[in-house]
Structure prediction request, 352 residues.
Amino acid sequence: MTSKIIGVGNYIPSETITNLFFDNHLFLSQDGNALKENNATITSKLKKITGIEERRYASVDQVTSDLGLIAAQKAIEDSGIDPETLDYIIFAHNFGDVKFGTVQSDAVPCLAARVKHLLQIKNNFCVAYDVLFGCPGWIEGVIQANAFIKSGIAKKCLVIGAETLSRVVDIHDRDSMIYADGAGAVVLEASSDESGIKSHLSASFTFKEKDYLYFGKSYNNEGCQDTRYIKMDGRKIYEFALVNVPDAMKQCLDKSGYSIDQLNKIIIHQANEKMDEAIVERFFQLYDRSVPENVMPMVIEKLGNSSVATIPSLLSMILKDELDLHQIEKGDIVLFASVGAGMNINAIVYKF
Prediction:
């Protein structure tokens, strides 16, 4: 007994933000001084390192739970189930609902409860809760749903990943250009056939790595110093990911019983194109293999880093034939992997 995906859905916000959007931003160093490079050079370097040319922002009247609701509705419709039969709604996010023009998090009631309410589910025994696990939150939600299903506690689960990172960035920090908004969701149910989750792995590195991603003050020292924004130590995250993620991916694949030659796709969290390419290259090197062509679909160029929404949104795009050169066929073996705040790493091997 395992669990399999029976429905997928996503929501890609309509507001397209190109790198030109940042031309008039005042980017500062951590000590509050203006950067020496002009903004055209800064955005050019961003594109070269991360691959990002565009990102999507939610409209001013939307919050994270609104995005999650749309993705959830699509996943439920795709699955063909009655939402009243859901046993769990698990909503992965990190900052709750943040209204446009503010940075205040609103997560009470939890976002899963808000989505359940908006879906008009009357079943009181459909349990709704949130997961805060950094960018790997959606994968962790799927792992938890799988545990509920395998134990017999649940038969059907809805797992949502949504975020509006554009609402929690320091506009004076050039790292703010990386972040984006979006949502993705899946419906899982019990499966006794060959398809479904074959193995999974989770890890939290907190001894030295806890503050690689954190909430910190604006680089503008004249602003409100009590207000906090998402901050990161990009170099440390990059080095951490290259050392630890490929090994975690290998452990998960080896645990599944499948060989590297049977692997068809890697769907990995996308925060930095160069970092993902290096992670996948090191992963294949662990098996003495070169990276196969088209094994890793990428959408960061146009969608940016939407945290927990990245992987489920990308999965939906592939399964609905919305990405050129990338399809998933019945019987394909797919490795999901993510790394993010915590620092947390997780992975799933899935047979379609």
Notes: Helices lie at 39-50, 64-79, 111-118, 137-151, 234-256, 273-285, 300-303, 310-319. The two ends are 15 Å apart (CA to CA).
